[in-house]
Amino acid sequence: MRTAAAILATGLAVLLVCVQPFAGRARYQRLIASLPNEPDARLRHYRRGIIGQWVAVALVGLIGVLSRRGGSSIGLRGGPHAASATGTVAEVAVILGVSAVFFRFGGPNVRQLLRRQAKGFLAVLPRSQREKVVFAGLALTAGVCEEILFRGFGIAYVRWLWPTASRAALIVVTAAGFGFAHLYQRTRGVVLAGLLGAYFAWVTLSTGSLLPAMAMHALVDLRILALPDLDQVAP
Predict the structure, then answer these.
(1) 175-197: b (≥16 Cβ within 10 Å) or e
(2) Which DSSP string do the residues of 128-190 spell out, in sequence order?
(3) What is the pLDDT of residue 164?
(4) Is the CA virtual torsion 97, 223, 150, 62 positive or negative?
């Protein structure tokens, strides 16, 4: 059974690093092409993202069953530094909240800057109230699932392949994979996602738990809901 787990884990790793980035970019291009004629295209894109991420997490669960390892092996536990982790999450939440207010009410110059920064993924941003509700579900899903996949499973898999890997190596390798997963956001998006992934990996390794990174990741994505209407800004 452990051989089957190793094969499945390797397949999932290849899928995340070598297939998903290009599939995600193709999905984004299809979204752009379909938006003018399909009002629900963005909703469909969100729902497929939610389903796809939970399917991948189900594979992680199956790998755990086959290898006889529980959730704690990928950081699904409180960890030995719960108090400091809670404080870190609270600090990040305050920073994100302040920045969300600034983004929302910063005026046309801020909107122009945000549009330039969001150029690589502008089409995926929610517009209608219905889209925002489903996007909130996608943000929460990403907070949980992407942390399980890239920090939980990712760190455990790299450790299995490379038992002597240092903390720095684990951070760099998993951050690179996470950044590349955002290939559809172009070079800027890949770099920024990689840096964010490095921070989440550092938090996970420092606290011994995935939970703080999950919470912060979800908050980062939910902050998108506070963005002003960027369509009002001329390209």
Answers:
(1) bebbbbbbbbbeeebbeebbebb
(2) SHHHHHHHHHHHHHHHHHHIIIIIIIHHHHHHHH-TT--HHHHHHHHHHHHHHTTGGGHHHHH
(3) 96
(4) positive
Residue with tokens 């684990």: 170
pLDDT in tens, 124-154: 999 999 999 999 999 999 999 999 999 999 9
The more confident residue out of 96 and 84 is: 96
N-term to C-term CA, the chain? 55
Residue entry with tokens 């240092």: 166
Tell me if 112 sits within 8 A of 231, measured CB to CB: no
Nearest-angstrom CA–CA distance, 66 and 149: 17
- Confidence (pLDDT) at 85: 87
Which tokens in the block code for residue 83?
Answer: 């108090």
What is the per-residue pLDDT for 233?
A: 46
Residue type present at position 207: T
102 in Cβ contact with 226 (< 8 Å): no
Those residues whose C-beta lies under 8 Å from the C-beta of residue 26, and which sit 6 or more positions away, are none
- Mean pLDDT along residues 171-190: 96
For residue 235, what pLDDT is reported? 41
